[in-house]
């Protein structure tokens, strides 16, 4: 990805480094037009029943199922993912999300009755879920279709129109429009604006009703600062430094395989990749030996990939040059401070092909254990006790995901409860993301807000609280005129209903008196 003075951005195939095409920043006139259209179409979406919205989204699902191989090839050309990674984490995941939300949305968005306290006897309380308006979705480059479509679909299901600005690194130019147009999905309900942060700034200035951002902590802070000028609510899905804690009672073979997948899938460029691995001392040596041996057997990305072949590589390409430089910098810093690289460790020269890498003798003074590396690198560190593992895992500015591996599920649950993150898997890694019924989001510098699960629809909704009273000739006891008698009776309610000496019979008698006052004491 390169920007020129004329504001065009080259999109590059990271596997071959060939230029694929270029995109241009969206002009101010186009931004204005997009938002005008979004505002015009939104009331039509709001007027549709939830079932009608679900039916629209099913058109997207059907189109993706039908055209999945071609869609996957587009994604791989721009990201360099292995084909299996693309299938599981983009195509499969989007279809799965739609399938879950097909059933979930009508239940979640249905108006709900909630309890009404006895002091408000005769009234009813409800929560209605209404759309917010137009949602701006800003995804990153690592899951370009999934991160663009999934929040957009949830926002649409909640009755909003959507403007999505894909990452300039992997814009998949024309693909979302193709899916929308050719599937017959509602026109203009989801619109696409291309460009970098320059376009992002213009889109925020157009004052969407909510921003759903997925990306780096640095950009998240900028977006929040700009959004604060207009009081636009934001969901920030930011980076991570996930810890995997491995206790010595586990099946090593299975766990090594799980940790390798968690660390290397999508070339380690997942926000919830295994970025740090803590292994208990009893199995540390055996674990390290096995993970190094197995990592060497994986097929790394290479220049002669046949991207149509699901076996052309196991570990995909690093998508961007700046990410390769970060990975190299973290490894160099670690080695200078005493770490040892046991396999991998450097890219194939003049490429972005980075082999699976295992590093040991690491400490929390090294960037590789503190900052997001975002590459196929697993640093492994030894621990002795449960308390030490928890302390090490929590010693991070990030709080996105993590995993605990132990045969003893009581211990695994206890440790999981002490790790300060938004997501956690036990005896697996990132698998909570595989269930769209579960909410997803971070704590600490990994951001805030949740999407997917029930919260994934509520985040794009105005939860309106409604209280329904009946017309009558009575007035409420807290209305005017204020009198000493009313004051005394209201005070007695506190004693008879809420205090430890509560007496429901006395409360009922006070209630009757207040009610009769409501009939008599009125301002005429
Ligand atoms: P990034 O922050 O550089 O860019 C993300 C998006 O923001 C891009 O579309 C970019 O064009 C846009 N952008 C940049 N500046 C902007 C501005 N000032 N205003 C508006 N938009 C602006 O992130 P990235 O490098 O594309 O993605 C990698 C990061 O994303 C990693 O930190 C990764 O952990 C994180 N991530 C988080 C999740 C999650 O769910 N928490 C998921 C995937 C990736």
Describe the SSE topology.
Layout lengths: L1 E2 L4 E5 L6 E6 L3 H20 L2 H17 L1 H12 L3 H27 L2 E3 L9 E8 L2 E5 L7 H12 L3 E4 L10 H9 L6 E3 L4 H9 L4 E5 L2 H14 L3 E4 L4 E5 L5 H13 L9 E7 H17 L23 H16 L3 E4 L13 E4 L16 E7 L2 H9 L3 E2 L2 E4 L3 H10 L6 E2 L16 E2 L2 E2 L4 H6 L2 E8 L15 H15 L5 H17 L4
Parallel strand pairs: 6-7, 6-9, 7-8, 9-10, 11-12, 11-17, 12-15, 14-15, 17-18
Antiparallel strand pairs: 1-2, 2-3, 4-5, 5-21, 10-20, 13-14, 16-19
Helix pairs in contact: 2-4, 2-6, 3-4, 4-5, 9-10, 15-16
Bound molecules: nicotinamide-adenine-dinucleotide.
Quickly give the structural class.
alpha/beta
Helices, by number, come to 16
Oligomer classification:
single chain
Q: Under the CATH scheme, which architecture of the largest domain would be assigned? A: 3-Layer(aba) Sandwich
Keywords:
single chain; 524 residues; alpha/beta; Aldehyde Dehydrogenase, Chain A, domain 1; Aldehyde Dehydrogenase, Chain A, domain 2; 7-stranded mixed β-sheet; 43% helix; binds nicotinamide-adenine-dinucleotide
Kindly describe this structure.
The chain has 524 residues and is of the alpha/beta class. It folds into three domains: 26-238 and 455-464, Aldehyde Dehydrogenase, Chain A, domain 1, CATH 3.40.605.10; 243-433, Aldehyde Dehydrogenase, Chain A, domain 2 (3-Layer(aba) Sandwich), CATH 3.40.309.10; 472-520. It is 43% helix and 18% strand. The protein has 16 helices and 21 strands. It has helices at 28-47, 50-66, 68-79, 83-109, 146-157, 175-183, 197-205, 217-230, 252-264, 281-297, 321-336, 386-394, 409-418, 453-458, 484-498, 504-520; strands at residues 2-3, 8-12, 19-24, 112-114, 124-131, 134-138, 161-164, 190-192, 210-214, 234-237, 242-246, 274-280, 340-343, 357-360, 377-383, 398-399, 402-405, 425-426, 443-444, 447-448, 461-468. The strands form five sheets. The protein has a seven-stranded mixed β-sheet, with helices on both faces. A hairpin with a 6-residue loop joins strand 2 and strand 3. Helix 9 (252-264) crosses helix 10 (281-297) and helix 15 packs antiparallel against helix 16. The chain starts with a strand and ends with a helix.
């Amino acid at each position: 990805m390169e920007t020129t003075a004329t504001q065009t951005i080259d999109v590059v195939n990271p596997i071959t480094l060939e230029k694929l095409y270029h995109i241009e920043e969206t002009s101010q006139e186009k931004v204005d037009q997009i938002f005008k259209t979004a505002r015009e179409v939104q009331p039509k979406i709001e007027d549709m029943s939830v079932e009608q919205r679900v039916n629209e989204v099913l058109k997207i699902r059907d189109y993706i199922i039908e055209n999945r191989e071609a869609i996957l090839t587009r994604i791989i050309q721009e990201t360099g993912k292995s084909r299996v990674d693309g299938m599981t984490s983009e195509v499969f995941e989007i279809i799965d999300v739609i399938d879950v939300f097909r059933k979930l949305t009508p239940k979640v968005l249905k108006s709900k009755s909630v309890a009404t306290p006895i002091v408000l006897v005769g009234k009813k309380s409800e929560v209605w879920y209404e759309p917010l308006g137009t949602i701006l979705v800003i995804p990153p480059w690592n899951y370009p279709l999934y991160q663009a479509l999934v929040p957009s679909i949830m926002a649409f299901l909640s009755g909003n129109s959507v403007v999505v600005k894909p990452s300039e690194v992997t814009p998949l130019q024309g693909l979302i429009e193709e899916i929308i147009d050719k599937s017959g999905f509602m026109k203009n309900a989801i619109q696409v604006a291309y460009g970098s942060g320059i376009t992002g700034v213009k889109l925020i200035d157009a004052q969407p009703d909510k921003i759903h951002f997925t990306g780096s902590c640095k950009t998240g802070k900028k977006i929040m600062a700009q959004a604060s000028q207009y009081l636009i609510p934001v969901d920030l899905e930011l980076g991570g430094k996930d810890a995997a804690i491995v206790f010595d009672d586990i099946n090593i073979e299975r766990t090594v395989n799980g940790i390798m997948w968690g660390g290397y899938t999508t070339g380690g460029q997942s926000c919830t990749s295994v970025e740090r691995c803590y292994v208990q001392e009893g199995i540390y040596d055996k674990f390290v030996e096995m993970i190094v041996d197995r990592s060497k057997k994986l097929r790394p990305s290479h220049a002669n990939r046949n991207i149509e072949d699901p076996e052309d590589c196991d570990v995909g390409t690093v998508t961007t040059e700046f990410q390769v430089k970060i990975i190299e910098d973290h490894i160099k810093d670690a080695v200078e401070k005493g770490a040892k690289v046991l396999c991998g460790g450097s890219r194939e020269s003049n490429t972005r092909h980075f082999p699976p890498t295992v590093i040991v003798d690491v400490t929390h003074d090294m960037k590789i254990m503190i900052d997001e590396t975002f590459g196929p690198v697993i640093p492994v560190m030894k621990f002795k006790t449960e308390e030490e593992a928890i302390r090490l895992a929590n010693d991070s500015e990030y709080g996105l995901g993590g995993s605990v591996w132990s045969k003893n599920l009581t211990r695994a649950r206890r440790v999981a409860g002490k790790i300060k993150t938004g997501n956690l898997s036990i005896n697996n890694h990132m698998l909570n993301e595989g269930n769209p019924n579960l909410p997803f989001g971070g704590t600490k510098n990994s951001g805030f807000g949740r999407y997917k699960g029930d919260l994934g629809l509520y985040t794009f909704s105005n939860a309106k609280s409604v209280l329904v009273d009946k017309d009558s000739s009575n007035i409420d006891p807290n209305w005017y005129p204020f009198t000493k008698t009313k004051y005394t009776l209201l005070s007695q309610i506190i004693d008879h209903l809420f205090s430890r000496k509560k007496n429901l019979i006395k409360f009922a008698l006070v209630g009757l008196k207040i009610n009769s006052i409501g009939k008599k004491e009125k301002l005429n």
